[in-house]
Amino acid sequence: MSGAGHAVVLDAPGQYRLVPHEPVPPGPGEALVRVHASGICGSDREVYEGNRPQDYVRYPITPGHEWSGTVDAVGAGVPAELVGRKVVGEGFRNCQVCDRCHAGETTLCTAGYEETGFTRPGAMAPTLTLPARLLHPLREDADLTAAALLEPAACIAAAALKANAQPGERAAVVGAGTLGMFAVQFLAACSPAELLVLDNRPDREGLARKLGATEFRTRGQGLPGGFDVVIEAAGSAVAARTSAALLRRGGRLVLTGIPAQGAAGLDPTDLVVRQLEVRTVFGASPAAWAHTVRAFGAGLINPLPLVTHELELAEYPRAIELVGSGDPDVGKVLLRP
To answer: Which pLDDT score, from 0 to 100, does residue 235 have?
Structure first.
């Protein structure tokens, strides 16, 4: 296990270093993964800028919770057959013994929040050592560049499972970013009668339709109604209220975005009178990960159209800048160690 290459280390908000990387040998129950690519999302920018809530980040930290790679070595108690396998991995480091973990709801682990790339070393480095139980092996012919986006896909898979869309239902997605485009693909796989995407950026229409949307609107075009299921993927209080307005009486809403703290929320009177079912998602359970890997292997989701930039790890500051630029030509940004 050579120490070639460098890792990103954030000592504090806005203070980063590139440091020589030395792989951590896997202990019992662990695996050492050679990182192929690491994605950057809004939460990585929050860590860089210092906007992430205090309980959900621990400096100094090597970021990187979206990644793909190949197993290089395993520790005692881990099947040797994993070595050489292409993999992705869950980020939440759950305790495995609390009642929520036993129920499969590992993102609600009562032992407290621990996650790769936020409180534990992440994948913006040549290698990553983590519990082997968190790994999800991929097919031998899997595209590892595409697979680097399976973490956000798994978060949306959790939303899709909770939405429980049925064939022939009318479905909608609010937000056409990375999460929204994955929501389109998961809902399209359920054969909806109609699949609307709502976003303020008209330039997203082409990609939305390519991935399965049957209709695209901006808010200025007026809102239809009567949808059976809506997945919100925009992360604002306005988006949440808009999503609820799209639903029929008794419709199902899944919220995935995290608005600014203290933002005005949904109208409880509206929720009760129209008997709307509202569910939320933060992270992805093992079941959602398994669902995502199956869908990816079957070709039901295609992450590659979402990738617009692939940069070297040394270009980390530029990658962070791109993610927050608001440039319509910037989609998913990947770093390659």
So the answer is: 83
**Full-model pTM:** 0.93
Which candidate, 14, 94, 84, places its Cα nearest to that of 46?
14
What is the rounded (10 degree) CA torsion for 162, 207, 167, 297? -70
What are 4-37's pLDDT values in tens digits? 699 999 999 999 999 999 999 999 999 999 999 9
Q: Residue 316 in 3-state DSSP? A: helix
- All domains of the chain, ordered by start, with CATH? 6-149+303-336 (3.90.180.10), 155-280 (3.40.50.720)
Rounded (5°) CA angle 22-24-26: 155
DSSP run (H or E) holding 12: strand 6-12
What is the spatial distance between Cα 251 and Cα 37, in angstroms, rounded to a whole number?
39
Tens of pLDDT, residue by residue over 242-289, are 999 999 999 999 999 877 676 777 889 999 999 999 999 999 999 999
Give the integer Cα–Cα distance in Å for 323 and 149. Answer: 15
Report the Cα 214 to chain-centroid distance in Å.
Answer: 24
- Integer Cα distance of 323 and 161 in angstroms: 28
Closest C-alpha to 195, from 230, 155, 221, 242: 230
